[in-house]
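[step 3/7] inverse_fold.run input=structure_tokens len=529
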């Protein structure tokens, strides 16, 4: 089949949340972009992976970029403009469409997709941004520290594209462009000798990677029976017991985030016994905010500890191993659905909720599972600066407080949250200080025109636990997009921007003009000390 050649100022491989933010930033800076996406939806975590925004407590006021705030405002406006909301919901400036308690703005993946498409529309419609859907990178051509081109293939048609540009941004959730281009990277867990981190392993293990989760969307119809066929591996998952506990994974007991060595009990629905409800945890549709009846009940997303898949990693393995374990992650989620429908203990003494119904329409799929698995941990760039537990941990920083970087390109905040890993099955939920994002973590130690735009900046596995969440990934992507555009405009490399006081100041000023916060405001500092 003939290869199509495409050229742009900036090539972005992967339309993840960070990839989308990078594309929009570069387009706003006047550059031409070609962006690939392996599925038919852009948006990564928010859309194809079906994960509502995990954010920090200051998010409604500060602690994110102006464009991320615009995204959140557009989501709320979408519901107010298109849904029959109650007067109270219409008047609520901080509307939480699903009233899920994991997020202040739990909403449907299809709404996130629509908003992201609208935000890119001026640039897509004028072909400043060209998106190649159902397309994945398959190889790269390099010359010394330069990436010359990336070859991609449309998985449906088989058509191949050779993409050339001045900069290549990695917006894949797995950091797929790193090994393909020979860019130096780390994978899995480092050792304590390497990083000095108290929570690092004694010995590094590249196969010890955070679990993935294949999310499902479900609603509950009282009196209904939507029991799915018994999954082929159900007996395995029904009896599988993690290393960190003595209770099978399919139960109402999971590790307590306040002390992961202990278990905490949950249940299905809100109750008068004080047991936390997982149903409302990631609820994305709440009919109580509608003023008229619509043909849908409450919808929630199954992204629970019960379907974290940590039997084996899906990166750093062969294509066949990746396929097998990606399918096993889906099989675990199907087993969770079947367990909920047939065997989950109810507080009334009964078992099972056959009224649980898969809602593939919510996720753009037929089987009720998300288009792709939720990826928490990527390959990570070997960068000029590596963020570690020492930079973020509240305990380790102590009276030093928030770490400030002279080369900051953004801010964020989240616990150092590691889900069970694929070898040691260890997990953490370490209290943090709000953090900044140093430009040095974007700059490869050798390659000159590769930039990370997702969860693949220079950081340790433990630091990844907080830098992987939605507002931070967006900020990383946006900063990468502006950095690539700045480098094209000025005819210099990102490393020169980082090393030149003049260019660094100019670039940071541009970021601030575009609404990127470089440091936390004084009121946050005052509230912490």
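[step 3/7] decode complete -> sequence:
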């Amino acid at each position: 089949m003939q290869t199509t050649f495409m050229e742009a100022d900036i090539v972005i491989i992967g339309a993840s949340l960070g990839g989308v933010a990078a594309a929009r930033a570069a387009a706003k800076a006047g550059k031409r972009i070609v962006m690939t996406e392996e599925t038919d939806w852009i948006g990564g975590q928010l859309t194809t992976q079906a994960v509502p925004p995990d954010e920090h407590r200051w998010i409604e006021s500060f602690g994110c970029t102006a464009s991320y705030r615009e995204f959140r405002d557009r989501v709320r406006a979408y519901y107010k403009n298109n849904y029959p909301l109650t007067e109270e919901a219409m008047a609520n400036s901080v509307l939480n469409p699903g009233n899920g308690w994991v997020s202040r703005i739990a909403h449907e993946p299809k709404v996130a997709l629509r908003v992201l498409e609208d935000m890119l529309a001026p640039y897509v419609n004028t072909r400043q941004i060209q998106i190649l859907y159902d397309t994945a990178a398959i190889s790269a051509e390099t010359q010394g520290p330069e990436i010359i081109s990336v070859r991609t293939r449309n998985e449906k048609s088989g058509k191949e594209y050779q993409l050339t540009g001045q900069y290549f941004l990695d917006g894949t959730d797995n950091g797929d462009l790193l090994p393909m281009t020979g860019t130096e990277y780390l994978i899995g867990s480092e050792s304590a000798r390497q990083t000095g981190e108290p929570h690092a392993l004694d010995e590094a293990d590249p196969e010890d990677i955070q679990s993935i989760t294949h999310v499902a969307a479900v609603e509950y119809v009282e009196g209904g029976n939507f029991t799915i066929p018994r999954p082929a591996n159900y007996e395995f998952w029904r009896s599988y017991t993690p290393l960190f506990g003595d209770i099978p994974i399919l139960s109402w007991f999971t590790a307590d985030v306040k002390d992961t060595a202990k278990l905490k009990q949950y249940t299905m629905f809100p109750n008068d016994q004080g047991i936390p409800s997982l149903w409302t945890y990631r609820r994305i549709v709440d009919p109580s905010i509608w003023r008229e009846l619509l043909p849908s009940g409450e919808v929630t997303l199954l992204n629970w500890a019960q379907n974290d898949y940590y039997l084996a990693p899906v990166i750093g393995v062969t294509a066949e191993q990746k396929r097998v374990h990606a399918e096993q992650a889906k099989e675990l989620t199907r087993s969770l659905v079947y367990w909920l429908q047939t065997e989950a203990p109810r507080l009334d003494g009964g078992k099972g909720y056959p009224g649980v119904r898969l809602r593939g329409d919510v996720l753009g799929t037929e089987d009720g599972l998300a288009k792709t698995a939720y990826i928490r941990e990527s390959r990570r760039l070997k960068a000029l600066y590596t963020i570690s537990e020492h930079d973020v941990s509240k305990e380790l920083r102590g009276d030093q407080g928030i770490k400030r970087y002279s080369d900051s390109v953004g801010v964020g905040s989240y616990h150092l949250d590691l889900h069970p890993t694929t070898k040691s099955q260890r997990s953490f939920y370490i209290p943090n200080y709000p953090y900044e994002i140093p430009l040095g973590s974007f700059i490869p130690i050798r390659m000159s025109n590769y930039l990370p735009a997702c969860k693949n900046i220079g950081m340790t596995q433990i630091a990844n636990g907080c830098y992987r969440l939605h507002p931070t990934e967006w900020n990383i992507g946006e900063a990468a997009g502006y950095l690539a555009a700045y480098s094209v405009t000025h005819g210099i490399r990102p490393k020169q921007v980082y090393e030149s006081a003049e260019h660094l100041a100019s670039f940071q000023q541009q970021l601030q003009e575009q609404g990127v916060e470089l440091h936390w405001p004084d009121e946050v500092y005052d509230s912490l000390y």
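[step 4/7] annotate
The chain has a mean pLDDT of 96.
Residues 73 and 94 are 9 Å apart (CA to CA).
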